[in-house]
Amino acid sequence: MGGRLHLVDGTYELFRAHYSKRPSHRLPSGQDGKAVLGLTHSLLALLDDPSERVTHIAVAFDRPIESFRNELFDGYKTGEGIDPDLYAQFELAEKATAALGIVVWRMIDFEADDALATAAKKFSKNVDQVRIMTPDKDLGQIVSGKHIVQVDRMRNRVFDEAGVEARMGVPPKSVPDLLALVGDSADGIPGLPGFGEKSAAKLLARYHKLEKIPPKAEDWDVELRGAERLANTLRTHQSQARLYRKLATLVTKVPLRERFSDLRFRGVPRKKFAPWCVKMGRAKLMERPRRWAE
C-alpha cells in the first residue's frame, strides 16, 4: 500500500469553470471552450501540486445528466436548463482529461458521484489515502476516518470523518438521512416540510437513521421547537422520506472496468497533449505540465 488516490468530480469542475470569472475562450472551431479550458487548468494545477502528491487519479462525468434516479422520482435533476454552450463541452472535457493521461469515467445510468463513491470504497485498501475532490455534501457519506476524505479545493478545506460531522451535524452514515429530511436543491430532492438543517441534524445526531426516530415526539429525548409538528410530518411522509434517502444514497457498486493499477498517473503524454493544445488554440499550454510520461 502507498500513495494517494484522487477522485475528481469532472461535472462539478466544468460547471465551476463555466460560471467563473475566467475570461471567455473560443476554440479555433468557434466553439465556446471556457469551461473545458478551466477544467484543464484545474487538473494541471492538481497534478503539479506538491502538497497533493497525486499518484493515482480518475475523473468522472455525468453524460447525460439523467440517471436511474430519474425513474424513481420525477422531480430529480435533469439536464433541462443547462446552458447549451456548457453542455456542448462535456465531450471535449472527457477528451481533455484523457489527453492529460487521466482515466475518464463517463456515467450514463449512474452519476459521477456514484463512480467516485464506488472507487473510494473499492480501492481504499490500495492507498494511504483517498481524496474525493468535490465539496458536494452527498459525498460526505463516503468519508471514513482520515483514510477517505473530502476536499474542497476552492476553500482549501479537507473534511475527514470528524470534519463531516462538524460541517453537517451528523456522522457520514447519517448523511443520506439528513438530506432526505432537509432536501438537496442541487439534485432536486425537496426534503420534508418544516425540517431545517439544525432540527434534522439534532434529531439524527441522536437517532442516526430515520427508522430509529420514535414516531411520537413525547418519546424523543432531544428538545426541538415544533417537535410535535415535525413528528407528525415524519409519520405522514414516511414513504417520501425513504424515497428521498434512496435518491441521496450513493451507489458503491458501479461496474468500473479499470483495475487499481490503471489509475496510476504516469505523467502527461506529450503525443496526446500536444495536438490537444493546438485544438484548444492554446499552444502555450504545453509549457504547463511538470510531470511528463516517459
The second-level CATH architecture of the largest domain is 3-Layer(aba) Sandwich
Q: Profile the largest sheet.
A: 6 strands, mixed
Our measurement of the CA-to-CA distance between the termini, rounded to an integer number of angstroms, reads 23 Å
Q: How much helix, percentage-wise, in residues?
A: 25-40%
**Which shape, going by the Cα principal axes?**
elongated
Task: Please give the radius of gyration in angstroms.
Answer: 21 Å
**What letter string, H or E per element, gives the SSE order?**
EHHEHHHEHEEEHHHHHH
Q: How much of the polypeptide forms β-strand, as a percent range?
A: 5-15%
Kindly give the count of domains. Answer: 2
Number of strands: 6
Named CATH topology of the largest domain: Rossmann fold
Give the class-level CATH name of the largest domain: Alpha Beta
Task: Find the structural class using helix and strand composition.
Answer: alpha/beta
Could you please describe the fold and organization of this structure?
The chain contains twelve helices and six strands. The chain has 294 residues and is α/β, with parallel strands linked by helices. It folds into two domains: 4-168 and 251-287, 3-Layer(aba) Sandwich (Rossmann fold), CATH 3.40.50.1010; 172-248, DNA polymerase, domain 1 (Orthogonal Bundle), CATH 1.10.150. A six-stranded mixed sheet has the order 3-2-1-4-5-6, with helices on both faces. The longest helix has 15 residues, at 34-48. The radius of gyration is 21 Å and the shape is elongated. The chain starts with a strand and ends in a 14-residue tail after the last helix.
